[in-house]
Design a protein that fits this description.
Blueprint (H helix, E strand, L loop, with lengths): L48 H8 L4 E2 L1 E6 L6 E6 L3 E4 L4 E7 L5 H5 L4 E5 L5 H7 L12 E3 L5 E3 L4 E13 L2 E13 L7 E3 L2 E3 L4
Antiparallel strand pairs: 1-11, 2-3, 2-6, 4-5, 5-10, 6-9, 7-8, 9-10, 11-12
């Protein structure tokens, strides 16, 4: 997803797993007084980026379209992401990750509200269009307005209208935490699924 957010890539932490001869991972013992373990100075082994991405690709995710009205142009814009997750019920918070290279997120970020559209199985082309740089992201798309005026894409399974609560830099991405103000079910159907670098749907 070149102009969107890819699956979150967690940074390995703590001691690396060691082999005891029976392939049993061991953990450093916790301090007896319950205090936090001291920071380790052990270096994490170099991990090939493509292999890391391939392994993480075995974790199936849904796909969302994050949309807003560009404050500068007054036109709808958006990006696709598969790193969306719930964070908190009280207050209602969600999060997603955005690559530093995204040219669309700065325009979405400047909007007062944005909308997370949970995409349905038939919306693969919608996802690909939103993930493409240098195009009219909403060309040919049908949409209505959320209560705050953000685009709700026709055919999405559900939507959540949000505002940015906080942003955290993490490697080559930014983790965005957003507060939910409005939400609703939109259409019935199956979700668009992203797995092993390809799009699919549930069968059965």
């Amino acid at each position: 997803m070149p102009d969107g957010a890819t699956a979150a890539t967690p940074i390995p932490r703590g001691p690396a797993a060691r082999s005891s001869g029976q392939n049993t991972p061991r953990r450093a013992p916790a301090p007896a007084n319950g205090a936090a373990r001291p920071a380790t100075t052990e270096q994490v082994a170099d991990i090939d980026k493509m292999r890391f991405r391939t392994i993480l690709g075995r974790f199936a995710t849904g796909v969302v379209a994050i949309t807003a009205i560009d404050p500068e142009t007054g036109l709808p814009t958006g990006l696709a992401a598969n790193s969306f997750t719930s964070v908190s019920l009280d207050p209602p918070l969600v999060s997603f990750c955005v690559a530093h290279t995204s040219s669309t997120w700065p325009r979405l970020r400047d909007a007062d509200r944005h909308c997370v559209n949970i995409l349905s199985a038939p919306q693969r082309e919608v996802c690909l269009q939103l993930a493409t740089k240098g195009v009219d992201k909403f060309a040919g798309l049908e949409w209505t307005e959320s209560p705050g005026g953000s685009p709700v894409i026709h055919g999405a399974l559900a939507w959540l209208e949000c505002s940015v609560e906080a942003e955290y830099v993490a490697g080559d991405h930014v983790i965005v935490v957003a507060q939910v103000h409005h939400l609703d079910k939109h259409h019935d159907g199956d979700p668009l699924v992203f797995y092993k670098g390809a799009y699919g749907r549930f069968e059965g």
